[in-house]
From TrEMBL:
Belongs to the BROX family. This is Putative signal transduction protein. It comes from Ixodes ricinus (Common tick). SMART domains: BRO1. Residues 349-388 are annotated as: Disordered.
């Protein structure tokens, strides 16, 4: 099965040895440096394989962050900013500048929670941590506020897609499904708008995907709005809503073709090959035919010129980013260990951060991600949804 999501490539990073200077050799401080190095390497290795268990990855992340937090916040009684905050240089590439046939409820909850956590990570980076950097982020880099906003909105919207799939499977009220789809469309629109001012040659393909998702879910919103209006015996408005749904669907088909022909980083999502996408057109046609038939026999209502307004907010089911907090210091960060590290006073620019030093290191190799196998069969769900 083809990808439903467009995902940018993983960031490559240079090795970090955590060789921190010390006032005197301290065995516990040396062990902490070694633990930091091993924890980082283990986490990076886990991230290359999307088949790894969520709990395993999250435990590895928290283990690393509990060690890493001592480089940010002092673990002694004084607290505040760690003296080691600027002692190491981390080098990363920039993402842009440079499946199951059945929906299992537990798996759906895991995906939903992970996407909300991912959105929370990005939101925290933007709100709390990017402003603490010594240098301003390069425009278009992964820490550019516009890029972070796009990631935040995309992760939140993708979590809400899980909610929509669940609502369709459980046959919830069409008004609720319409409102959820409308909110999801708005999230994707916000994500696309965040990238509007960035270089099209680098961000155009990603932005086109976000626009595609926004238009597709707008079609879903109008489709279920039409069904909801029919239930309220507003047949004329229902017909107009379904006509708008058909128009949005045709627009989405054309954008699919445009997206498929664009070049750029990341996986290629093939939405038009997915059952969830393909099922929408016949659903719109069946509902529209029913509305026109009922209007001809019973209601005889005039079809409005303008499409009806969609509900602005769902009554429940909306997704928001899950707040991210750094874990407490690992128990290895004792005041004695912290005192053993030595940070010399600044004496001009760090030669290790010079352009010459970075050039000598060379380009970072791309991350070798492990492939994910997908079934070619359509999912066995009434909605056509599948977890990837």
């Amino acid at each position: 099965m083809a990808f439903w999501f467009h995902r940018n490539p993983l960031k490559a990073t240079a090795p970090v040895n955590f060789d921190l200077k010390m006032l005197a050799m301290d065995s516990q401080a040396l062990k902490l440096c070694s633990d930091l190095r091993q924890a980082r390497n283990h986490l990076l290795d886990l991230l290359t394989d999307p088949g790894n268990d969520v709990g395993t990855v999250e435990a590895s992340l928290n283990a690393y962050l509990s060690l890493f937090v001592g480089l940010l916040l002092a673990p002694d009684e004084k607290g505040g900013e760690s003296k080691l905050r600027n002692s190491l240089r981390f080098r990363w590439t920039q993402s842009m500048l440079g499946n199951s046939p059945l929906i299992n409820m537990d798996e759906a909850k895991d995906v939903h929670k992970c996407l909300r956590k991912a959105a929370g990570f990005f939101q925290a980076m933007k709100d709390k941590y990017v402003g603490q950097l010594r240098e301003q982020p390069v425009p278009g880099s992964d820490l550019d506020s516009r890029v972070v906003s796009a990631y935040t909105n995309q992760c939140t919207a993708e979590a809400q897609e899980v909610t929509i799939g669940r609502a369709i499977e459980m046959k919830h009220a069409p008004g609720l499904i319409s409102a959820l789809a409308h909110e999801t469309s708005k999230m994707y629109t916000s994500a696309a708008d965040s990238l509007a001012g960035l270089e099209p040659s680098k961000f155009g393909r990603w932005r086109k995907f976000l626009i595609l998702k926004a238009v597709f879910y707008l079609s879903y919103a109008y489709c279920y709005a039409g069904e909801n209006l029919l239930a309220q015996e507003k047949c004329g408005e229902a017909i107009r809503a379904l006509q708008e749904s058909h128009k949005c669907y045709q627009d989405a088909v054309q954008i699919c073709k445009q997206y498929a022909g664009m070049k750029g980083p990341g996986t290629t999502a093939r939405l038009d090959q997915h059952l969830f996408f393909r099922k929408l057109a016949p659903l719109v046609k069946r509902t529209l035919d029913k509305c026109e038939r009922e209007n001809g026999f019973i209601f005889h209502q005039k079809v409005p010129k303008d499409a009806p307004e969609l509900e602005l907010r769902a009554t429940y089911g909306l997704v928001s980013p899950e707040d991210f907090q750094l874990p407490p210091h690992d128990k290895a960060w004792t005041p004695v260990v912290y005192a053993a590290f030595y940070v010399p006073p600044p004496a001009g620019p760090d030669p290790g951060n010079s352009k010459a030093a970075i050039k000598a290191e060379g380009d970072l190799p791309a991350v070798q991600e492990k492939s994910v196998s997908h079934s070619a069969a359509d999912p066995k769900t009434s909605s056509g949804c599948v977890l990837q």
